């Protein structure tokens, strides 16, 4: 439990922000007998709930098998968060979202003993009951999606330690890791010596298409099909280039291309656009956002061959 990627943590945060908005808006609407939106900046979310939920999960991590320490950690962690949040929001928005001034043993009206003790029980409720189905939902998103999916960056990192999720997928999946992400996913040593064989072995073992990025990007499918891309240049080795490739492959898939075909074509078009871009901007000065300006010419060249 709690071995999550950054993407999964964000999913949890957004889900609890939305749940908090639903609960608080419903409570205030019933209490005032008037439909009330309690969302932060009128949006359908309340970051204090998401932050509180994540805090409860984080502080309970060292004590998952000790319910007493989970309670104590929840009391302390949530109280600190409540105080900091209350003071900050009052400074920023010149208003108090809660006030414990009339409660016994309060401090500046931002925190009180009763609230602190309640946070401990809520932490136990959160970690032992509420989070269990939420965790199951988030971890099953990839498995249950019946449409083609392209995974890059943290989407790939999320599979580390959960490779069975990839194995259970029925719909096509394309992974586009660079060597570092591939090493985290598989545990292989760096550098990857035989990139084509590594891509072919992984795709065959896990029933996916793998695009192992780098000089001579290797693309392989589960049926043994594989190739080395010949387009591209060192100017692509900048943050954001992989995002452009992921979007390109996803776009080709949406237009009906096969997963392997979309991956192979996407890698070549991506590299060819980089070559054309470098002619105008140089390899050193080119940036990933400029690549899209050259896709039209790259597509035209591919169609003419």
Give an account of the 3D structure.
The protein is α/β, with parallel strands linked by helices. The protein has 2 domains: 6-144, no CATH class; 149-304, UDP-N-acetylmuramoyl-L-alanine:D-glutamate ligase (3-Layer(aba) Sandwich), CATH 3.40.1190. Helix content is 58%, strand content 7%. The strands form 2 sheets. The protein has a 5-stranded mixed beta sheet, sandwiched between helices. Strand 1 (106-107) and strand 2 (111-112) form a beta hairpin. Helix 2 packs antiparallel against helix 3. The longest helix has 32 residues, at 113-144. The protein is elongated, with a radius of gyration of 25 Å. The mean pLDDT is 92.
Compose a concise summary of this entry:
This protein has 305 residues and is an alpha/beta fold. The chain has 11 helices and 7 strands.
Quick tags:
single chain; alpha/beta; UDP-N-acetylmuramoyl-L-alanine:D-glutamate ligase; five-stranded mixed sheet; two-stranded antiparallel ribbon
